[in-house]
Write a structure and sequence with these properties.
Helix content: 40-55%
Radius of gyration: 19 Å
Bound molecules: zinc ion
Number of domains: 1
Protein name: Phosphotriesterase-related protein
Largest sheet: 7 strands, parallel
CATH superfamily: Metal-dependent hydrolases
Family: Belongs to the metallo-dependent hydrolases superfamily. Phosphotriesterase family.
Shape: globular
Keywords: Hydrolase, Metal-binding, Plasmid
Structural class: alpha/beta
CATH topology: TIM Barrel
Pfam families: PTE (PF02126)
Oligomer: single chain
Length: about 325
């Protein structure tokens, strides 16, 4: 529900030290998706890449056709600190909504590829600019019926996003509040599910944000309390990120990445299946719970169906 093929922060394309070989990237992405499909039964891959983070729907189409995995792309921009192109900051709510609706109903540029969801992103606090883009997303949702997938920063402002979606007339069950696992407090997750949205545990394996045993504990708690129908699991991996990091990273972190790379484990898209699901089983989460989270929830989310009745264990 939240993975990436390619990420490029605005400006990375101007770095002469950046090496990028498009056909090698496509080959690696196809290899990863084929592995997911053949070894783990993954048939659909949602890539909510913001427009300005190198979203490349031609590449997505090519990787999808070559791998036999459906790829869902999104319309929508990133958040103010790391995105929001100047030109679009100057646009009004309706102008932004017009772009989103066009990308959903007519296609992205001249590619013929239509967006299947709307991406919304906010910082730790929702800025005035971010609020404007969120309002545009509400208009585009109401015009098209496609769901909204969000980015939150540092596990903050999810409930505030929900309040703004409600004010904009978007039903709670059409929203997936992303990166909620960045917040370790179970009460935070409970607020999101109680308000009726999907909660994204979608940075599984990103150890430098939060440890996975905390993510697994928190998912197990939600499942025990009857909220398995609102949990979305994903890993927020990418097959290629152009250039260097855009936030400061420690030497210890870089060393760990080098180690993982040397083991062929860095950014592995299969980690959810090989490592994390066994951690859930060890905490009493059943295989049927896992299938509900990985199959039923995304299907219901895109179909726009209401949440089933909650049944705590
Ligand atoms: Zn992401």
């Amino acid at each position: 529900m939240h993975e990436h093929l390619f990420i490029a922060f605005p400006g990375a394309q101007f770095d002469p030290l950046v090496k990028f070989n498009r056909s090698e990237f496509i080959e690696e992405a196809v290899r990863r998706l084929v592995k997911l499909r053949t070894e783990h039964g993954v048939n659909t891959f949602v890539d909510p890449c913001p427009i300005e983070l190198g979203r490349d729907v031609k590449a997505m189409k090519e990787v999808s056709e070559k791998s036999g995995v459906h790829i869902v792309c999104t319309t929508g921009f990133y958040y103010e600190e790391l995105g929001l192109p100047i030109y679009w900051r100057a646009r009004a709510v309706d102008e932004i909504a017009e772009l989103y609706v066009r990308e959903i109903t007519q296609g992205i540029g001249d590619t013929g590829v239509k967006a299947g969801a709307i991406k919304v992103a906010t910082g730790a606090f929702i800025s005035a600019q971010e609020k404007k883009f969120l309002e545009s997303a509400c208009i585009a949702h109401k015009a098209t019926g496609v769901p909204i997938i969000t980015h939150t920063t540092d596990g903050c402002a999810g409930p505030e996003q929900q309040q703004l979606f409600a004010a904009g007339g978007v039903p709670a069950h059409r929203c997936l509040i992303g990166h909620s696992c960045c917040n370790v407090d179970p009460a935070y997750h409970r607020r999101i599910v109680d308000a009726g949205s999907y909660v994204g545990f979608d940075q599984i394996g990103l150890f430098y944000y939060r440890p996975d045993d905390v993510r697994a504990d928190n998912i197990a708690t939600l499942v025990r309390n009857g909220f398995r129908t609102q949990i979305m699991m994903s890993m927020d991996r990418n097959c290629c990120r152009l250039g260097k990091f855009v936030k400061p990273v420690t030497a210890a972190y870089l060393a760990k990445i080098e180690y993982l790379k040397s083991q062929g484990l860095y950014q592995a898209h299969t980690y959810l299946f090989t490592d994390f699901i066994p951690m859930l089983h060890a905490r009493g989460v059943s295989q049927s719970d896992v299938e509900s989270m990985l199959v039923d929830n995304p299907r219901r989310f895109f179909a726009g169906e209401f949440l089933p009745k909650r049944s705590p264990k």
